[in-house]
Amino acid sequence: MATLVRFASSPRDLEAAFALRRAVFEVEQGVPRPLDRDAFDDRASHVVAWDDAGRCVGTGRLVRLDRRTGVLGREAVPAELRRTGIGAALLDALERMAKLQGLRELTVNAQLPAEPFYRNRGYVREGEPFQDQGVPHVRMKKALAR
């Protein structure tokens, strides 16, 4: 399956990203609070992955905190497509976006099962696991190369 990852640049891209987030977080994972949209979406930079059939198969976002730090979040890939490289391609695009914005450091509140995914890509755990919307998470950080 061919996949194209790009910066979300149209209303269609964003609507597809929000629909995928709703399917993954609310429907699949049963997160009690809607995560398809929030107050950070309007100021976030988003990426989307499309398959060759025109289906949105991945999304993620970057929220700039200050001049040097950004927060990654809402990275979602359908369950049947996880471990196929889509998540890694999304993360690569988000990190490129962060570098283009001049950011030096990224943080992510990763769901506990995703900790190895981020660790294998240079993120380091900070602190102990915590609950967010009833789901165990861990805060992770990565310094970006210049």
Write up this protein:
This protein has 146 residues and is of the alpha+beta class. The protein has a single domain (3-105), classed as Aminopeptidase (3-Layer(aba) Sandwich), CATH 3.40.630.30. It has helices spanning 11-28, 86-100, 115-119, and strands spanning 3-7, 45-51, 56-64, 69-76, 105-111, 124-132, 135-143. Strands 1-2-3-4-5-7-6 form a seven-stranded mixed β-sheet, with helices on both faces.
Short account of what is shown:
The chain has 146 residues and is an alpha+beta fold. It has 3 helices and 7 strands; from the N terminus they run βαβββαβαββ.
Topology:
Layout: E1 3-7, H1 11-28, E2 45-51, E3 56-64, E4 69-76, H2 86-100, E5 105-111, H3 115-119, E6 124-132, E7 135-143
Parallel strand pairs: 4-5
Antiparallel strand pairs: 1-2, 2-3, 3-4, 5-7, 6-7
Main traits of this protein?
146 residues; alpha+beta; Aminopeptidase; 7-stranded mixed sheet; 3 helices; 37% strand
Total beta strands: 7
- The level of helicity is 25-40%
Mean model confidence by pLDDT:
94
CATH class category name: Alpha Beta
Q: What string gives the helices and strands in order? A: EHEEEHEHEE
Please state roughly what percent of the residues sit in beta strands, choosing from under 5%, 5-15%, 15-25%, 25-35%, 35-45% or over 45%: 35-45%
Rg over CA atoms, rounded to whole Å, is 14 Å
The CATH fourth-level homologous superfamily: Gcn5-related N-acetyltransferase (GNAT)
Q: Structural class of the secondary elements? A: alpha+beta
Poorly predicted tracts of residues? none
Total of DSSP H or I helical runs spanning 4+ residues: 3
Main beta sheet strand tally, sense and closure: 7 strands, mixed
* Largest sheet strand order: 1-2-3-4-5-7-6
- Gross CATH architecture: 3-Layer(aba) Sandwich
Number of domains: 1
What spatial form do the alpha-carbon principal axes imply?
A: globular
What name is given to the CATH topology? Aminopeptidase
What distance lies between the first and last C-alpha atoms, to the nearest angstrom? Answer: 33 Å
